[in-house]
TrEMBL record:
Pfam families found in the cross-reference section: Gluconate_2-dh3
Transmembrane segments: 13-34
Keywords: Membrane, Transmembrane, Transmembrane helix
Protein name per the record: Gluconate 2-dehydrogenase subunit 3 family protein
Entry keyword annotation includes Transmembrane: yes
Amino acid sequence: MSEQKNGQSRRDFLLRTIAIAPVMAVGTAGIGALESRSVLAADNTSSLDAPARDYQPTWFTAEEFAFITAAVAQLIPKDERGPGALEAGVPEYIDRQMSTPYATGSNWYMQGPFTPDVDKDFGYQLPLVPRQIYRLGIAEANQQSQKLYGKVFAELTPAQHIEFLTALEAGKVEFQQLPSKTFFSFLLQNTREGFFSDPIHGGNQGLVGWKLINFPGARADFMDWVERGERYPLPPVSIRGERS
């Protein structure tokens, strides 16, 4: 969450650390494309300020959705190379995920014992499913924001947003019902997913995430390009046939 990590912007850090299928699929051609700021800027300039479609949350409350909206805008901000998470519709993606089996932990093993102190070795160790993590985490984040700044998170300045999210990431904000670091990790992971998912799930609207990494999307066959070390020449296509 720092403004720069090893001399790179937050967007650079995100792109260099994502571990999702699209990046693996495009191989060196995709990673090479990320280095070309001029090409990406030219591809995305026309849609840089394009807003996400209007959306009313179906699971989050208005206050919770305001938190999500403000947070993702800082986690993947728009810049000269293209739209960020907000413009890509990531808040819609996260809200829609709260109505899936993932959000209720229906396919998770949720029996004890729970030992949070060993999560680095054995994975997630809390008796909370994503719905609970978001509901409790947002409430506690807003409470701590009120204490620190006199306002809920959504009402803070961009600089205060970054400062507070950085503290969450480092686990320096004291939550009572779950570690603030755990809440931040879920928020960041779901933001990444929403930015690079197929638009059928609500995020990556306009295919902006795929355009940024030069991922062909749901095209039937592009494997002959993977080892060529060249930028893939065709725009991405979504499952529904949408083209950027």
